Amino acid sequence: MYFLDMGGGKKLKDVTCSIDRVSALAYISDLSYFSKSLELNPYIETIYRSTRQGDYDTNIKCVDGSFIQINSREKGEENVRVDFNPNTLHGRDTFVEMQKIIAFMKHPRMTGIDFAIDYHGYDLSSLSISTPRSMKKAVYYAPSDKLESITIGSGNGDKRINFYDKGYKERKFLPKNHPHWWRIEMQRSRFKNEEDYFTNPFEGMTFTLPASFPPDMKAADKAMLIGLQQQPELWSELGRKVKERLRDLHIQASTSLDPHPADVFELYKEDLQRQIHEVFIPALQNSLFYKAL
User: Out of the domains of life, which is the source (predicted)?
Assistant: First the structure.
């Protein structure tokens, strides 16, 4: 955990970055032996099979919530999928057992990685998020009319951003000096290559908080910005020129989130790479390149 001095005499507030979920495809040559190794494994909670066309025919749930799926119908192709949260592999048993499973794999390929940046002690209930290109956005409010979450992007895209009040259900358990806990979660998929796994996904995005309106800003523009803050879905109904003008005014009346998620990601990047590499080492040892080292 890194503690960041916000300056101006403010107390230290902590921001962390972690991998919340990993999904990978791989090839296992002997599925029969692999399946038998799982049947008596105490790490496995349930095994259920599907006969529906197009589905994985074997679905396995592990005690820590991890999933393993096997497709024995497709010969000579990626036939196993694993989906897990690396943070739940904290105990010796779960970590070792997952590595035993991964040891069967050849040429694992990441198909999804979720990065979570947690802001502890920050009140981000008025945070505004903008992306370099236009993306579908949905905003949700709690019954108290306070912001609860923002979702940007769709499940079919290569990026999906979830911003939400992580401490909403944990409020009574949060320390008095850190009464807030907000999370910015980036769900990534459809990677170009292995180098793309840890390309900074927050680059080019803007995260702003309201500051104060410039004294020369027109009252009508102030009213428009306040209304758009309350109902951000109305941005899509504005004309291009009006939208551009109001976005410029919004930037003038805002302050950037500090530290920016892109900076936090870069700070943790090597640790995150090391964490994934450690989990997948048994599969990497199956490659000819690794054996030649």
Answer: Bacteria
